Amino acid sequence: MMKGAYLPGNSTTVLREVPVPEPGQGEVLLRMKASTICGSDIRCIYHEHLGKGPEGYQDVIAGHEPCGQIVKTGPGCRRFTARDRVIVYHISGCGVCNDCRRGYMISCTSTGYRRAYGWQRDGGMADFLLAEEKDLIHLPDDLTYADGAQVACGFGTVYEGLEKIGINGNHAVLITGLGPVGLATGALCRKLGASLIIGIDIVPERMQLARDLGLCDEVLASGPSNVEDVRRLTGGRGVERAVDCSANDAARATAIRATRKWGRIVFLGEGGRVEFNPSPDIIHDQKTIYGSWVTSTWLMEELVERLVRWNLHPADLVTHRFALDRAADAYTLMASGKCGKVAVCFDEEL
Amino acid sequence: MMKGAYLPGNSTTVLREVPVPEPGQGEVLLRMKASTICGSDIRCIYHEHLGKGPEGYQDVIAGHEPCGQIVKTGPGCRRFTARDRVIVYHISGCGVCNDCRRGYMISCTSTGYRRAYGWQRDGGMADFLLAEEKDLIHLPDDLTYADGAQVACGFGTVYEGLEKIGINGNHAVLITGLGPVGLATGALCRKLGASLIIGIDIVPERMQLARDLGLCDEVLASGPSNVEDVRRLTGGRGVERAVDCSANDAARATAIRATRKWGRIVFLGEGGRVEFNPSPDIIHDQKTIYGSWVTSTWLMEELVERLVRWNLHPADLVTHRFALDRAADAYTLMASGKCGKVAVCFDEEL
Amino acid sequence: MMKGAYLPGNSTTVLREVPVPEPGQGEVLLRMKASTICGSDIRCIYHEHLGKGPEGYQDVIAGHEPCGQIVKTGPGCRRFTARDRVIVYHISGCGVCNDCRRGYMISCTSTGYRRAYGWQRDGGMADFLLAEEKDLIHLPDDLTYADGAQVACGFGTVYEGLEKIGINGNHAVLITGLGPVGLATGALCRKLGASLIIGIDIVPERMQLARDLGLCDEVLASGPSNVEDVRRLTGGRGVERAVDCSANDAARATAIRATRKWGRIVFLGEGGRVEFNPSPDIIHDQKTIYGSWVTSTWLMEELVERLVRWNLHPADLVTHRFALDRAADAYTLMASGKCGKVAVCFDEEL
Amino acid sequence: MMKGAYLPGNSTTVLREVPVPEPGQGEVLLRMKASTICGSDIRCIYHEHLGKGPEGYQDVIAGHEPCGQIVKTGPGCRRFTARDRVIVYHISGCGVCNDCRRGYMISCTSTGYRRAYGWQRDGGMADFLLAEEKDLIHLPDDLTYADGAQVACGFGTVYEGLEKIGINGNHAVLITGLGPVGLATGALCRKLGASLIIGIDIVPERMQLARDLGLCDEVLASGPSNVEDVRRLTGGRGVERAVDCSANDAARATAIRATRKWGRIVFLGEGGRVEFNPSPDIIHDQKTIYGSWVTSTWLMEELVERLVRWNLHPADLVTHRFALDRAADAYTLMASGKCGKVAVCFDEEL
Fold it and tell me: How far B313 CA sits from the closest chain D CA (Å)?
């Protein structure tokens, strides 16, 4: 038997004893090592179960950012074996629809098979996790399991968005929203070569964290002068690239308006709406707005290769670690917002 | 002396006698042959003068879509000579700022020199026009002057937007708004290879014109079921590309929502606002929205080369032609909206 | 028992009786309907076995362009079922390496699993074929099995190359080499919108076929004046896009040199070498040369969707059909070069 | 009167007294401050006059990398005024052909007007230079005149090539040829974010210079094991990007072969030939080869903006400075190859 954490709603966390699963065809059993909490877990499950039907939380073990070590493989595995250290891409698709074939299991169109870890199938908040081999990303020895957990959802999502808009030394970058996704954006933009990184948030603790971790060159408090402030910091020109990690309407408009002629904006933050005036905001300055959702398995593998090359450790954004027995405390803290990333850890990662 | 048409506001047109100008350094004098009316002339000048300061109408001869024949060149001209048939790129920039050097005189940053024909310097609604050589586009013999007038603003603007999003046989295209810009979009998409063209408008005459000219395969009346209609016409998938030529908030949202996963939308229509929900509308389907403004002189030259290759005649969208003496009637008709493109013509073009 | 055709070398074909295989986990059994012969079968297997080691022909049933109908599925299949009509992507990769995850099983890096149909695992020249579900592409009712066989290798490869360089109505296209790959290039360029298609070959029968099928607007005999000829046909400018399907050094140089300033060239033809002078040939004209190999499973699916939309039938390039019993005649004819595409067909396709 | 240096051939340099020119319409007179020597000056003019006709050296004052200060403007100048510090884009085109309108005066198609400074019109090796306003790039106070001279040709050319292939932190970059262009490539790749820079050359002094200036992380002596060496330095994968600055056939093949799957190679070095085997060298690894020539005026302006942002000083590559009176020594040294960049300087730059 093993323990697993469930989120019945109403801002509660429950631990239950369940049998350790057995890997079937093409499956592996992982000993969990690190499982981080995503903002969407809080927003859509912890407080109340927002999603309905197949998109909703199915009363499974929580945790969609899992990283661990294979202890057993089922028949038919072709690449991974026992003792391999692995990240779990957080949505298990059918593997054979067009979206899955592109590597974007996030948008698997096979309703009978698409199941997100921690939402529709058991996730990482347990001693062991059953995963499909096709969902695994090899974790190099140079990265820790906590690094890997960060890649499973957040860093992967950010990397995809940054690849869509292209980031290098030519670019000053604006990040609206400095939660875990915004901080990951700062960390990756730095390594991709961005020459200036400006962050905006409303929570003083987050602003301070961005400064303390050196992930932003400038941090602004959210407010009506933000566009003007960003222009002032960029010689009057605005940023070449902007990344919205806030999902806030006003912040999204700021991201658009503070972007320079011919610049690009990508929306990563989930939920909410946006409103703007196309002529002055994007037409006259020839700007482009990208929507970007999660990433592909193959780009996640590329990211992991780059993290090693860059000596970048996503776990540096983890501010608090808890044992599985204290999973409830982990969710409570994450829900408070007074933290960076929160992780449930095991063994050597604790 | 020559006659020129002015737009004092209050939906009136006035003809005045003025001296024929003399070309100076780097300038040419054109005998006007065709001068078409743009929707922005009606919206921003004819009814009332909306623009203020240097962006506003400066009580000059109207007409920013001019096409004619050079009758005299000033000193220093390097490429064009008398008898050349030419289109006039409709904004004369300084020629040496960064935007002008890219060919985008539309966004010339030199406030002392940027002057749009028909807005801040005399335009094409006159017997003769004084233009700078750098603003000229060669008009091949295979195209008429009325074809050329259409290129000066509308077709050039559309071509730029279509080049930004890329159009070929892989694409079903949605066009929201079937005024002259929307019709030009249909004509160009057809030649670029679009496999299906769907148009949406609210005015029955425009819908009929799009059908009669064969520029749309399907024409829908604007309404709440448009997204569903477009999906039905595209096997449930939506269009790969959408072009907003309406500047209408609801139509823009339709353009976004009726676009397929990984698709691209470009906004060409000027004015108004847009509002949407990023998660379902662009993030989860990995869509991209482009703002696009006018075009460059060099891309306008490419367009002209292509028009000849395609045997495409933009003047086919001109439904009514008037002599300069009847310029007032031309503006009245254009303001009514019950027409395609309206042109003031001279000599063999009348 | 069933019959299968083997290629022992020395330009011979042998039929053998073998057991009908049984689909295992994730596998399907196909009733073969059409199996076309690729130039590489002749070049690398039929005359003599050129490839060595894991890349070489492993004395299996030949045919790497198979298309058929599922008669039985093994356990674990998630998308396809009995009676489905399917194309087989011609290389079965491991499915979980980075290349496979991008959909490019052609370059699967798992030497233990990568096996091309008809080269290292039994192919389509038999009554039945055992395939992995992950290698299947759905064949819509609007396409025939012979259409599908053409997609499995040739049309898929061409589509990938054309997507890399981008083809639309802006482009005159040069095709060097009018074998089956060159003809497929003409057919797809036509549907993508190319405004002029020029072909070059050395074999009169092929030149005539390109003309008869309407796949080229102009066909030139290979010779030293080709660059000049192409420029003459394009108003002195050269083509905007060129596709080498010849693998011939001189033809590749022609493709490069006949391409216009800022143009793009893609190399599809396999083998041989190329030599050119970078300054005049690509640097001063800002040209780009793309290498392109086969395609991904997901782009092959897109191609199939487009074929239906375009009402394009790749089987129109099939000039000769043989029953399996006459497979030897099929290979002999294909080796002679005096044909278009040659197919071994079954049942309703014969 | 003023002095100017001429290159009559036979590896000689001659100083002559000529009148100070007077700026006409659209022209400016510069007080020269720095004028660097390009490899092409040595290869095509200094030793013997290789170019013929309008492309050849026309017995004018040498120097096509000029930077100075405006002392007088002719009539009609719109942007620049006396005392402005300026770089001269090194080819003066007609300004109104399609290439000039894109900003690429390097490929101006107007044979009557295209004249390179130092080749067909007087260049920077004199006390004063007459230039057209449209050829000028503003030099910010943060950059020296020697920095500016470096931008006029070499750094501009490199930046264009790097923008074509895209460089950021995802990329290990190989540079073949560590002359001034190769060193500029290293300097710009560093600022764009490249995570590893490997250089190859044959001259020990150049290899040492690349190391001393910190422009390469690894420097290899040219040799048959280069491809293997580069793969070893990149975890067996090869570089994501390669830049040929050598114009050497073997080095170009190395650049292609040492590049990773899906990678991009750009050729900048002028002259010579290249030979390779498309199937293994570019087709099977889906690689792309770009030709790139000089740059546009507008991208040169962007580069200057970036240099300030990056605090990057191109003049750091200048190893030797001479007064105009010693121009002969400057050319002799540059011809020896035992140096970095060589400059003729004036006033505060000496």
Answer: 22
